[in-house]
């Protein structure tokens, strides 16, 4: 399992960086246009955001829940560059630890300094605290840039240096205790730089006295120069000396930590992901990790190199490819992603960029349609063809092939841009959609459900049948989740590959309750598919015969239309049995049937019912 660092709500993010991450986590339609990010406290900013956006952010029951959405993105390795943070502003990161199958904690190698910075105390307050935190963050970035040259891949992991982190914490805590009092006492008896009056002079003194790397010192100098404009050194000389001394102490301790305290992996490390009961690894990461440790990969290297990027290998397949002794020298580290609320959380990929889980990418896309833009509440039936065309255009990204569990972040951004173009030019309307509200306590749940079709049946004809079925036998308190699920269920009737994709990602029954593709209905539905294939073949034959007759009439060419082969009694019996099983399946799983045939699937249901009736005569 994965375990996040202890998350507290006192995170400090400068308004610029908080705005960047909020706009990365929440669709623009859900953020009030007049909201301003002004506070340093993340929780205060988010509380105001939730209050102003109550109608669009009502799915978040508390400010803390909204805060966790932001915190999840702060746990992404390399998040500062990914989120395009203002590196001169304040920001906090929340790296995660992950546990191997052998129970050992691991961290992403690029997160080591982020972990170390979490145990660094700050004995200052007010503007002095902000400057110190910004300067230490600058030192951290500089050390990370030096450290990256020693990293094979940004998905590389190392054993968590818990003992070293405890030592570092103890060292700095000992110095931090009463630091300002001690510094004040020393400065009364020793004037270290009485002639220092300008930022440049102070920077030279600080660099020489503390023997810090010149490039690292220049990072701090830029921050020093910025603060000097608001808090002149000439008026706050003693404060600056105390702050720079503390920054120098921390910088040297962090550098020592990175140089001497990082454990080296003696075993190959491979991330292990899961979907349902399936465990799998990224094929190219698996190959590269084993090659880095000089494993014999000749038996499968060519196969893996021929796979598309982000391909996966099931864990049992890995066990077949690697001998038992080598398996003992591999640490498989379980990676558990936080649940997606609105947008997919990025994952480092083997080729140096990022990817997301395919199901999370699909969830993000549907969230934008259903929750942010409320498309199916505002478009007309004749506009739905544009939705169908869009889904056809991105079908290749959401295929149901076995082993396709990831989509590159680049591809996700492409899908989103295609969707934005479709929406802006073909679906956007001035019509205002009705907002959803959670059900109040009491006995009004069923009445509320009946009221909130939200005119969805205009473009999703099966909506009333879906919402009027088993949902009315429950008392859902979360109307947002309920109506979201209604629309996915109805949409899967119109866009047929959705069900297959959800099934391939092991979430079909979670997304569509009582989905007949799994559980007891799986075998029945397999027979139903065969019956449907037979039905479709017959329909195609009829069309072909009709077309042939038309050509004969128009061209006045004698053409003998082949007679349809008579079905054997056994084949007819099998077909009737399959139709009967379809009827039982639809009944057992409370499948919603339209009053009038609205799709080929609905026509088939009616045909099957008629065949069932004839079979029972």
From TrEMBL:
Residues 106-261 form the DUF7809 domain. Residues 543-569 are annotated as: Disordered. Residues 543-556 have a biased composition (Basic and acidic residues). This is DUF7809 domain-containing protein. The lineage of its organism: Eukaryota, Metazoa, Ecdysozoa, Nematoda, Chromadorea. Pfam families: DUF7809. PANTHER family: RING-TYPE DOMAIN-CONTAINING PROTEIN, RING-TYPE DOMAIN-CONTAINING PROTEIN-RELATED. Signal peptide: none annotated. It comes from Caenorhabditis briggsae.
